[in-house]
Amino acid sequence: MPLLRSLPDNATLADLRSRFAELLDKLRPYAERLMRGPSPLTEGERELIAAYVSGINSCRYCHGVHSQVAGAFGIEIATFDKLMTNSELASVRPKLKPLLRYVRKLTEAPSRMTERDAAAVYDAGWSDEALFHAIAICAYFNQMNRLVEGTGIIGSAEAYSQAASRLAASGYAGSPRNAVS
User: Fold this and answer.
1) Which CATH class is domain 41-169?
2) Which residues are within 8 A (CB) of 46 and not within 5 positions of it... i.e. 6 or more apart?
3) Mind giving me the DSSP string for 74-105?
4) Which of 26, 29, 34, 135 has the fewest C-beta atoms under 10 angstroms from its C-beta?
5) Cα separation of 162 and 160, whole Å?
6) 3-48 pLDDT, tens digit each
7) What angle do CA 177, 31, 141 make, to 5 degrees?
8) pLDDT in tens, 85-131
């Protein structure tokens, strides 16, 4: 049950966006650019980070949706169970693991980030731009997780699937895309 009285039972993020469009629609262009625009990270890797951060935060809605969106971009859904229990054993490219460690620490203990954390990312072959994109995705989904959890949106498997299909097909701006990987 949502925590905001103005939301319907079994509210989704679409319901929240509809109710508070004047604020939340301002985030759409940023999210579209971040998650679908040019980046050193593939769309699947960006969705993987989004789902991973959401899983760390125990945000059922965002984790449920973005793990499926990542699946639409070629990331195996089974990867997420392993990521959440032991990320080092997850079947992701070894180059991604330092980025995933970085966003985990940034989510759990942001004031404890060190040069060594960044060095591990650089040593894996990532650029400043790639690290910044991972940081920005982490920050955006920490914000979205708090909006979703703070308003009591939980959703259902059906809601996750519907939202994931929309995001995979139309992106974050809410308009149809020409092609989806």
Assistant:
1) mainly alpha
2) 34, 35, 39, 133, 137
3) T--THHHHHHHHHGGGSSS-TTHHHHHHHHHH
4) 26
5) 6
6) 999 999 989 899 999 999 999 999 999 999 999 999 999 999 999 9
7) 130
8) 888 888 899 999 999 999 999 999 999 999 999 999 999 999 999 99
